[in-house]
Amino acid sequence: MAKGVLPNPSATRARILETATSLFYERGVHAVGVNEIAAAAGASKLSLYRYFPSKAEMVRAMLSEHSDRIHAWLDRKTAAATATAPASSPEHVLAVFDVLTEWFAQPGYHGCAIVNGVTDTRADPEVAAIARTHLHRYRGLLEDRLSNLNVEDPAALARRLLLLIEGASVVVTIEGNTDAGADARAAAATLLAAATATAAE
Length: 201
Hints:
Blueprint: H1 9-27, H2 34-41, H3 45-51, H4 55-81, H5 91-104, H6 113-120, H7 125-146, H8 154-175, H9 179-200
Helix pairs in contact: 1-2, 1-4, 4-5, 4-7, 5-9, 6-7, 7-8, 8-9
């Protein structure tokens, strides 16, 4: 930092959290220490602890803010992809699968950071609560899109579609083969077709 320039607290916190997010995602929470995070972020341990009094609090902040970014990104991307489609089109639901499948295929994809965080910190009920909220938001997005379609039980179908999304993420992570994303989309299309056909009878 140039002489005479005061540090920006928001920027420092964001830089530390961005660094922690990257390191935790690549190697796992337990494999990365606060000393490494501070050094990689170009911050002192004193600064790190000023914003995050403990590593556990840093993990919670990372997961909560990551969830916010993912859902904002997903809502924005799917809305743009279906801007010209009628609200009653199944494409509004399938676009969620299209965007996520594209994400799963990106180099360096190591699964859902929220699920990984729960696995790494199983004794932390606050992390589990963040993960539950994350899944509820997925279901909420799907249910909202389904509510414009002629299906009998949007909530139940949203739960089934979420299982396809999370299952595809796990399979891609373990096998390293992105076919699971396309398979999940195909299964979702089949479920949507069956649900709309039943409602029309």
